[in-house]
Amino acid sequence: MTKKAKRITTKIKLFLPALLFCGSTVHAGRAFEDAVWEHIGKSDNHFVALDNQINSLNSANTNLSQSITQISGQINNLNNANASLSQDIAKISQANDTRITSLDSQISSLSMANTNLSRDIAQISKEIETLKTVKTGVHYLGEQYHGGIIFYLDKSGQHGLIASLMDSINEGVQWRNGASGNKVTNAQGDGIGAGETNTRLIISQQTADKQNGKFAALLAANFQVLEDGITPCKTPAESEGVCYGGWYLPSAYELQLLYTASHNNPSLSLVSDFYWSSTEDSVNKAWIQNIATGEMTTEVKSNNNGHVRAINRF
Within a 10 A sphere around the Cβ of 8, how many other Cβ atoms? Predict the structure, then answer.
């Protein structure tokens, strides 16, 4: 029972005789006394029940406080663990960044080393092939030689045909030398080496009436280049560098050999268009190679779509 309940009960009991006296006087019997004691008993029971409830609440409050204290401790532990985890993550991230930077640097170094190695291998391969040629005197298809690329070899491997690395001019030209060039030049030779003779005949006939001009055979014959196959020779050629001349317009057969070889050697780089041969067909027609289709056909000499690729013999 609470202190307040006890004080109330004590006061009731102190004043009980007076109440009983008054009750006896007023009512003149024990009925009132019995009722009072009954009420007091019920009040005591009520106070005891309240007191028990208060004790239960106090106990529950104590348990709740303890639970809150425990939860607060757990929260603090979690916060500490989270802070430690964040620090560990930061350390791991920093370590990973450092590692990634190191790996990037290593990859860049390896890529550069690989590039240098590929360049060295290519140079060594080229030197090996050169040594083979010097030792045996035998050439190979695709070899860069005398300012061009070998695209045909005979059985001995010591003689063949060379194609220039580029066209004699970066546009199409006519086979003839202007309108007066519609004439028979007798340049009807075909086969290996025939293009050289054809070229001489064409130039002789096409310049008889007109000394100046820009036509296929003349452009091929005037082609000259240094050892690298790209740099044109100066006129007159300087003695410091080797200048290769003596080029000519290929015959129809030689042009077909060049077309076939171009499939296996991209360095020949023929444009997908028409190329003139030196083989004449008639007064106003000559043979021309269609690189796009591979077809060899005749075309009027006045057609200015034909390209010029000079070749040479060795």
Answer: 14
